[in-house]
Amino acid sequence: MSIQLCTFVYLAGTTKERAETIRRSFYRYLENYAWATPLTWVMDMKTCKEILPKLQELANKFAKETEGKELFQYYIISVTLDTLRILLQNAKPPEKKEIAERLKKVLESKELVEILS
Predict the structure, then answer these.
(1) Mind listing the pLDDT tens digit for each residue in 87-97?
(2) Which domain holds residue 112?
(3) Which of 22, 55, 38, 37 lies closest to 100 in space, CA to CA?
């Protein structure tokens, strides 16, 4: 069984002035809505769909301030539940508890399936 996740990679490098404010806003969103894993920022697809328009808005503002630099790239990946469990072991959960619970519930439901089989 696998699950789709949304991952984010920061691309912009060092920034100054207004662009730095936008970069900090981007990171605040990630801290609130994504799991900080050793490899990347990860979130469930529902969360991704909810906040992606706001992140794109920040990326557009950033590009305007930096003459076209990209703020981030995001990827949709499929991972097995075992891989998700490993990713989240050493990850920092999002500050919004209800968002953190979304991926935890997926793992817990898998454990229930294993118990019942």
Answers:
(1) 888 899 999 99
(2) 2-116
(3) 37
Tokens 């002035």, located at residue = 17
Phi, psi of 93 (to 5 degrees): -70, 160
Q: Would you put residue 78 in left (φ > 0), alpha (ψ -120 to 50) or beta?
A: beta
For residue 104, give the nearest of 89, 72, 114, 113 by alpha carbon.
89
Cα separation values, 102 from 18, 43, 49, 65, 85, Å? 33, 9, 14, 35, 13
Number of domains in the chain: 1
Q: Summarize the confidence of residues 36-57 as an average pLDDT.
A: 92
Q: What is the pLDDT of residue 90?
A: 87
DSSP letter string, 53-79: HHHHHHHHHHHHHTTS---EEEEEEEE
CATH number at 77 reads 3.30.70
